[in-house]
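dumping this here so i dont lose it again. seq + smiles for adenosine-5'-diphosphate
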Amino acid sequence: MVKIKNIEFYNFRNFKNFKTSFDDKLNILFGNNGCGKTNILEGISLVAKGKGIRNANIINLIKKQEDNFLIKKNLEIQKNEFNIEIFTETNKEKFKKIIKLNGDSSKDSLNFLNQSVSFLIFLPEMERLFQSSPSYRRNFLDRLIFSSRNDYNILINKYKKSLIERNKLLQSYNIDDDWLNRIESDICLLGLEIYKLRNLQLNILNIELNNMKKDHNFQFDVKLKIKDDFENTEINSEEYLTKLINSRAYDKQFGGTKIGPHKSDIISIVNNEFDASLLSTGQQKTIVLMILLGQCNHLVNHKKINPIFLFDEIGSHLDKYNRQILLDMINRFDIQFFLTGTDKNLFSFVSTNAKFYNITD
Ligand SMILES: Nc1ncnc2c1ncn2[C@@H]1O[C@H](COP(=O)(O)OP(=O)(O)O)[C@@H](O)[C@H]1O
Ligand SMILES: [Mg+2]
């Protein structure tokens, strides 16, 4: 069980000096546009690996005209309290995020932290998840995988690096064939692993969504699947490698790699009939919430991971179906929630004791 007990910001985004404590269960942040609600969620999310919920360049986290930011928080992990400090350091002009756990930034401390903390995230852009670009849907799926496997980003990064390396080689004057073969077989191995994990994740979600039908009268029956060149085929490494080799000329001419998991799309078939891109934004939100509920169920019951929910601008489009899903999440799991919206009234349907925060700038 992980809970964020309190937080302090110094020169972080629009905050000069901000300090608050949190409820173990339900925190609702409200206030006008631009008051810093998303910034607070971002500050919370930075305790995990990576660049936070906005995937922002670290330099933008520092309050304008200042040199550095400092985020302090107290975390409760399995009933023990830890203090966390997050700030940046520059190395050869590059900014790097530093995290200290009880004053210590050793690998062991950071591994412990990464293994303990997991987030499930809703962002307002997700109301158009099925109308946005395939890359946004891939990232959405990858974030879900990351919520249960904190080393997944290493695989993705290795894969991306290998693609860049292959590109460079293809563009070079004297192609080193051995090197190219080596890289392509690496790409196949890594790519197959990504396909495997993504398919596994989608299967888990399809099963969870199906099981939840018992306690929910969801409006939609949803099936998720991957769509790309390898769709409907049992991809094996031989076929993958052959396709890669055959696309060398094309890839050299156009730059990039034509096939692989970086080209996949994730599609969602509704009621066995149509693609979720035809749904309204509020209805797409329903599907995203269903997916997050399913993933939470999986994390809590099968992985013994208690994620923290960061739901930004969740207040809009909360019709009775979306409210029902949100309430079910809040009531079903003993985990910590952070919800934001412009107005306190948007959350009047929440019956659980919630702590409300009026954020003013
Ligand atoms: N590095 C920064 N320094 C100072 N202000 C910033 C910085 N980054 C963002 N802001 C300000 O933060 C505000 C946006 O905060 P945000 O959390 O997105 O608001 P909201 O409450 O609508 O979610 C904007 O006014 C923006 O100018
Ligand atoms: Mg916002």
